[in-house]
Amino acid sequence: MRNRRAALATIAGAASLALTLSACGESTTGSAKKAGGTIGIAMPTEASERWLTDGKSVVSDLKAEGYQAKLLYGEDDPKTQVSQIEGLIKEGVDALIIAAIDNRSLNGVLQQAAAAKIPVISYDRLILGTPNVDYYVSFDNEQVGRFQARYIIDKLGLEKGKGPFNIELFAGSPDDNNTKYFFDGAMHLLQPYLDNKQLVIRSGQTALKQVTTLRWDGPTAKKRMEGILSASYSTKTVDAVLSPYDGISIGVLKALKEDGYGSGNKPLPIITGQDAELASVKSIIKGEQSQTVYKDLRLLAGVAAEMVDDILTGKTPKINNRRAYNNGVKTVPSYLLQPTTVDKSNYEYVLVAGGYYTDAELKS
Ligand code: GAL
């Protein structure tokens, strides 16, 4: 635990720089609250490896702080998640850590949490449209999109004036607040090259609402890519795909390979991703997916666990951003971590030396 705290402190920068707010709007001068209670954790899905890592890490960090943890996965179904959170409130948990499935579906249940004075931490995805969310812990989500776009710009040589190249855009789930941050971050850098025609989107699908992928589902992305390939690329080839998440990248890659990309004179396009999921890192090593954005979920979990402990023991949780994330009702005090761009050239240094994966896991 000492190591984790030290790591967090390093990332946070000087403690004196950290902004602080009082927990849940309550005075922090009151007596210490419940250390050693039970924390309810609501995660979106077991179908994606990253959320399994999040769940495991949050539970073990809470246990290390002396708490019990109740971890539930909502099978990517908003109604299931609402009833799971309702159940946790009825069981009398002392705090909730929630990664929402649909960021607007939780207003009612969070009202119940507020009535029961249960503090709520919005985990990775901001919960929208409710005053009843106390803190947000995530990564710099626009930076994720900027890393993806920067990779495409560098690999295509756009700054050197090369082109024109064909690109297609994919975005995340429309009900996830992160989706527009990733997309805006990327488009901010790509737009000038679309404007000057060094980049061309042959499908004509350019607006966020045309390119989202409900629930970040890989097969849904595969289907959309198939449609695009048959409608717009019978005589052309795709040079780059902006993909916001590894599960989507794997779906897009399947469609491309079935269309003959990756063999003969049809190289695979540059394709980005996010989360450094095992299948995608293996794909990067094989030379298929090009890049991913690594977010050290151990640090994210650590910040969430520490916030809970601070709130429940009457301390003021550390935050490092009080402006970036407004949920429509309030600006939610946030702690944002920094992501890292990863490709074949640095995965060993970042992911293996960093202890996220072992060499054996990546080579099996
Ligand atoms: C987002 C998250 C991404 C990715 C995606 C799909 O909310 O920030 O890292 O995991 O969900 O699960």
UniProtKB/TrEMBL annotation:
Q: Read off the CDD domains from this record.
A: PBP1_ChvE
Q: What is its main location?
A: other
The protein's UniProt keywords, in alphabetical order, are: Signal
Q: Does the keyword Heme apply?
A: no
> What start and end residues bound the annotated signal peptide?
1-25
Transmembrane spans: none
Superkingdom of the organism of origin: Bacteria
Q: Where in the cell is it found?
A: Cell envelope
One Pfam annotation reads Peripla_BP_4
Q: Where is the Periplasmic binding protein domain?
A: 39-315
Record keyword Kinase present: no
Q: Which NCBIfam families does this UniProt record tie to the protein?
A: ChvE
Q: What is this protein called?
A: Multiple monosaccharide ABC transporter substrate-binding protein
Q: Which organism is this protein's natural source?
A: Streptomyces sp. 900129855
